Each structure stands twice: as C-alpha cells, then as structure tokens.
Amino acid sequence: MLDVACGGGLFGPHLAGKGYRVFGVDLSAMALEEALGHGFDAVARADITRLPFADASFDVVTAGQCLEHVPDPYTVVAELCRVLRPGGTLIVDTIPDTRTARLVAITLAENLPLPGRPARGTHDHRLFVNRERLTRVARAHGVELRLLGLRPRFRDFIRYLAGRREEVRMVPVTSTSVLYLGVGTKR
Fold first, then answer.
1. Which residues have CB under 8 Å from 142's CB, separation 6+?
2. Rounded CA separation 34/117 (Å)
3. At residue 162, does pLDDT exceed 90?
C-alpha cells in the first residue's frame, strides 16, 4: 500500500494488523521520520507528481488531503494510477472547486477561532479540484472513480470542539460539494 503525501503517517496506526506493507511518500524528511514511528514499513522523499516507483507496484494507493494543495492535481492522479496494479484500489479525498467548499474550507474553517483550525492561507480556492475532470483523468488511466461526499460525524465534532476528543470520524453523504472521496479499481 502506498500513502501519497503521507505527512507524519497518521494513517499508519489504522492499518496495523490489516496485512499491508505500508509505504509513504512526502517531501518533508521530518514527516517521513514520524511516519516510520507510526508504523510505516518504508518511506521515500519524493515529488508526488513523479513517484519513484515502477508501474503497477501497489495494490492500494491513497492520497488524502493533498490534491487541493498542488498546482496540477490531475498529473498527480495520473501518477497514482500509474503505480497502481490492475485490480488495485485507488482512494483519494479532496476539496471540490465549488462556492460552498470555498465558504466552508476558507471563509469559515480558516477564520473562526476553533481548535485545530487550519492557519489562514492554508487553502487556495484556485487549487480546489474539479470533480468531473478528476474522474475523467482517472478513467483515462484505467480507474473508474466513484465519488462520495464526506462530512464530520456530528457527535465527534462537538466533542472535539469541547476538547474531549482528538479525532473526528467522517461519515458519507450524498453531496460532494464540500469534501469528497473518490474510490475506484484499476482495470
């Protein structure tokens, strides 16, 4: 399994005991050291638009919360598909290029005095990802993505705001206008 833009490897503990050999890629050497501490088997410092792996190297490729921070997310998606083996699963989540997402992710999330809020300027609405183009690019590289909207679980979010919970689980919703997950299998 490859976790692209893995950061400190927070995904690692959730994968423990599930039978995966987990690889992480990120630009930050410090983050990669932390990912190893979170149970990643191997890490590589690399640009996610040019992954240092052979074609069809991984059974599962994930890219969470990174596509909306790169100038060309579609090149990244093509690269994710390239390293995914036929029959393998691609999982991405990102922010769509909608007015609603801009309101929630920038106007509210970056400006309300809430715990854990992203710093001002974290998101640039011009980098938000067009859903139709994302699915077209994935399809052109052999992966038919199914899109599913996501939102924070209400109880978790309230407990998080009150300082009584560290993580907030996400739940599926029909609308993909604020945050969405794309899942597909490579032909």
1. 81, 86, 186, 187
2. 22
3. no
Handedness of CA 15, 16, 18, 24 (dihedral sign): positive
Give per-residue pLDDT as tens, 108-161: 999 998 888 899 999 999 999 999 999 999 999 999 999 999 999 999 999 988
Tokens standing for 174?
């029909």
Among residues 37, 2, 38, 7, the alpha carbon closest in space to that of 21 is found at: 2
Measured in degrees and rounded to the nearest 5, phi and psi for residue 148 equal -140, 130
> With a threshold of 0.90, does the pTM exceed it?
yes
Which of 11, 82, 94, 20 is closest to 51 using CA atoms? 82
- Look at residues 83, 11, 72 and name the one whose alpha carbon lies nearest to residue 41: 11
